[in-house]
């Protein structure tokens, strides 16, 4: 895990969308938000979850590995950049390769859009825009020691399983200490395949 990184604490998210608004203000992609606020049980619960790029370390950035145009670069400190606008061909390979469902394709611009950890800020020691405005600390930028100093006993995960594959990430997620499995199972349970209920 990177020294200073983003920690996502779903239990603190109140769905206020401050992170989404702040992300739109980032100079590198002004007007477009690269963070997604998901509602995992929409219609039955008010639970919300900020979804940002997890900056996969092992395997290294599956989105970049499948890009036929080499449009997605990974910095020396492990930050997976958004697609280079001069190289991206909008093929959506990255969308299909990401186990976390992060990259999105702007169909009009034929361009991949995703969080780059506000690299224009974090490369200079500043927190990403989303973490600077989160009123509850659901998005925390710092070191694991800083997080634990503020929240004693907190457990975090940076390894997630998807079937037989384990993905280690540069961004970590706060997990309930009494319910955690290592590595944390990723994805949502499959309940329907081709319109057929498989529960």
TrEMBL record:
Keyword Electron transport: yes
Keyword tags: 4Fe-4S, Electron transport, Iron, Iron-sulfur, Metal-binding, Repeat, Transport
SUPFAM superfamilies found in the cross-reference section: 4Fe-4S ferredoxins (SSF54862)
Pfam families per the UniProt record, alphabetical: Fer4_11, Fer4_2
Superkingdom of the source species: Bacteria
Entry-linked Gene3D superfamilies: 3.30.70.20
Entry keyword annotation includes Transport: yes
Regions that span the bilayer: none
InterPro entries membership: 4Fe4S_Fe-S-bd (IPR017896), 4Fe4S_Fe_S_CS (IPR017900), ET_IronSulfur_Cluster-Binding (IPR050954)
4Fe-4S ferredoxin-type domain sequence ranges: 4-34, 79-108
PANTHER family found in the cross-reference section: ANAEROBIC DIMETHYL SULFOXIDE REDUCTASE CHAIN B-RELATED, PROTEIN NRFC
UniProt name for this protein: 4Fe-4S binding protein
Organism: Streptomyces gulbargensis
Higher taxonomy: Bacteria, Bacillati, Actinomycetota, Actinomycetes, Kitasatosporales
């Amino acid at each position: 895990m990177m020294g200073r990184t983003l920690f996502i604490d779903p239990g603190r998210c109140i769905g206020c969308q401050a992170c989404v608004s702040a992300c739109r203000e980032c100079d590198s992609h002004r007007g477009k938000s690269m963070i997604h606020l998901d509602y995992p049980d929409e219609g039955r619960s008010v639970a919300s979850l900020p979804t940002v790029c997890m900056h996969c370390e092992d395997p290294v950035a599956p989105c970049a590995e499948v890009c036929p145009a080499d449009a997605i670069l990974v910095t020396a400190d492990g930050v997976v950049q958004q697609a280079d606008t001069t190289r991206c061909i909008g093929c959506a390979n990255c969308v299909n390769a990401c186990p976390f469902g992060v990259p999105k394709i702007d169909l009009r611009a034929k361009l991949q859009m995703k969080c780059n950890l506000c690299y224009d800020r974090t490369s200079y020691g500043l927190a990403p825009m989303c973490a600077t405005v989160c009123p509850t600390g659901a998005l925390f930028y710092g070191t694991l020691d800083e997080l634990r100093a503020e929240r004693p006993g907190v457990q975090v995960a940076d390894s997630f399983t998807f079937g037989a594959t384990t993905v280690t990430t540069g961004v970590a997620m706060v997990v309930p200490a009494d319910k955690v499995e290592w590595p944390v199972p990723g994805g949502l349970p499959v309940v329907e395949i081709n319109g057929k209920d498989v529960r």
